Amino acid sequence: MPAEIVDVDVAEARRRIEAGARLFDVREQGEWDEVHAEAATLVPMSELVARWKEIDGGGQPAIIVCHSGGRSARVVAALEQSGVPAVNLVGGMVAWEQSGAPVVRDAQGEPRHEH
Fold this sequence. Notes:
This protein has five helices and seven strands, in the order βαβαββαβαβαβ. It is of the alpha/beta class. A five-stranded parallel β-sheet has the order 1-6-5-2-4. Strands 3-7 form a two-stranded antiparallel sheet. The radius of gyration is 13 Å and the shape is globular.
């Protein structure tokens, strides 16, 4: 039976982070380098099989983010099936940035390409 994926919006994710939950970004290094959430830890989806045990929500479900929410939903399903509580940040980094949540950008200060 597939795990049920729980989606959280940016406001809920930020509340959970303030309460001690951890945010994990599953995009690849190049995407991370362009822009990422200030509070995030990078665990690329391509490395998930080797690194999934690093994902710990700090006593709460881990919050998983990607670019727009598709990859993170798949990662959340895999983590839940492995017994790691996790939730999906709906809208991904697109929604995070649009909300004005804190981000870190590459040295040029702007993304290198438009999405």
